[in-house]
Amino acid sequence: MTSERLEKLIEKPEFHRRLHLDRFAKGYSFGIGRDPGAPSKLALYLQVEGDEAPDVPEEIEVDGETIRVIIRTGFKVPRPYAARR
Question: Which of 20, 41, 71, 76 is the 20 to 30 Å CA partner of 53?
Fold first, then answer.
């Protein structure tokens, strides 16, 4: 699995559904990085708005490879500049 391949997959709505994010009402963002427990593997970083983490799997299988899902709370959804005035 390459980061480029994973990046294309996370853009698809079915990927979000597999992580049960279609039921998550707050904002979130994905990032791709190295798994801190296994640096040779990729991990999916899920940043979520607020202090509560959604109920998502700890791992997801993608193209036959297991990808760890690491959740980070406290994400702030960017606001358009015009809305800040």
Answer: 41
